[in-house]
Amino acid sequence: ITGESGTGKEMVARAMHYYSGRKNQPFICINCAAISRELLESELFGHEKGSFTGAVEQKKGKFEIANTGTLFLDEIGDMEPQLQAKILRVLQNKDFYRVGGKKPVEADVRIIAATNQDLEELMKQKRFRDDLFHRLNVIHIYMPPLRDRAEDIILLANHFLKNCTTGLQSEVYLAPETEDIFNNYSWRGNIRELENVIKRAVVLAGTGPILSEHLPDHLIE
What we know:
3-stranded parallel β-sheet, alpha/beta, single chain, two-stranded parallel sheet, 10 helices
């Protein structure tokens, strides 16, 4: 799944899982950009007791926890090539070794990967393995940015507004001027930015219409 940050790639991955035959099995998500390479290997494959300083007990990794379910590898473009090779091995052989382990652990896991980077450009730079790319690229889903989905902006805004006001006694709604501002803004943060703008506006408006004065300055500059 590719697309800019905030376009809803993880939501698509979750939908694919929960509408599939694996829906009653685990859905495990890990952000490959948020963890160092050393820790990421342990997070993915687990480790044996005593395999490194601080490994006081055996730990299952995300592949093992996600067995029979789905493992979502978010921001896979940030994964270092050395670790990419180990991911490729799991896809090819359907087993892996815990860090410090000597016995293979079998893995029946569906992999869904996502990135906001251009993997083909990373391959040219030798920062992403060609063989892993072709293993992953069975079905490619592109999530367009919100600025290319103008017809969805107000629909999504009202959806988030409903979520934010459920259970509140007061009624909050979008004023026509606010809808115009939303439709004319570029939404560089995409759907995530829109949701946060709505949350902020609900707090500031309290009740009645959401006006321009309830929006961040950069939306109306």
